[in-house]
Amino acid sequence: MRRTIRAHPGEVTLLGIGPMTNIALLFAADEEIPSLLKQLVIMCGTFTYRYLGKPCLSEWNARCDPHATAMVYNAPVATRSIGLDVTSEVTMGKAEITARFSKGLLKTVYDFGGWDDGARETLTFHDPLAAATIFDDRICTFEKGRVEVETRSERLEGLTYFTADAAGKDEVALQVDAAAFYEHYFGVFAG
Fold first, then answer.
1. Which CATH class is domain 2-88+127-174?
2. Pair type for strands 140-149 and 170-176
3. Neighbours of 119 (CB within 10 A)
């Protein structure tokens, strides 16, 4: 990644899914990398503090390595965050998954997901939603501001704090148009 980003300054959008450890290591190994990125898009955090209509303080990707998450948000790069509170709005039940994924290019995803074993009843498009916003930023409603990550409190480690600020370098998704996401996602795989 380092060579590719250096060879194409200002052209690469880096997508981060999962804990932020590897991105933080990349930024620590080469402190110039963040400023060479076009954008950093991550599935990380929660910014409305709700998950499926219930209170939710932190999200796994941020909580798993809060110090790495803080390093990533403190880096000099425009960061777009799609948090658990928003990704949880794009969920499908087993019947629709079976209908949409059991043929064509998505058959492999269906088989890999183990849908025939009866263990899973729903699929939430956490990472695909983050990826889709790279290509169509109208899928989500974003607000600019500043994100801070709790690293001092053991109990609250990984909590993401968002402060709205039109001049901020970060932007967080606050809402998703689920129909627009599904149209985009399945349009890619149908074409």
1. alpha beta
2. antiparallel
3. 8
Count other Cβ atoms within 10 Å, centred on residue 5.
20
Structure tokens at 163: 């402060």
For 103-146, what is each residue's pLDDT tens digit? 888 888 888 877 777 778 888 999 999 999 999 999 999 999 99
Whether the CB-CB separation of 91 and 122 falls below 8 Å is answered with yes
**Please, is 133 exposed, middle or buried when counting C-beta atoms within 10 Å of its C-beta (0-12, 13-18, 19+)?**
buried
Model pTM score: 0.92
Q: Could you give the maximum distance between any two Cα atoms of the chain, in Å?
A: 49
For residue 17, give the 3-state DSSP assignment.
Answer: coil
Q: Give residue for tokens 């968002």.
A: 162
The residue extents of the domains of the chain are 2-88+127-174
CA 79 from chain centre, in angstroms, equals 11
Q: What is the DSSP string of 82-132?
A: E-HHHHTTSEEEHHHHHHHHSSGGGHHHHHHTTGGGS---EEE-HHHHHHH
Q: Please name the helix (run of DSSP H) or strand (run of DSSP E) that holds residue 29, with its range, or none.
A: helix 21-29
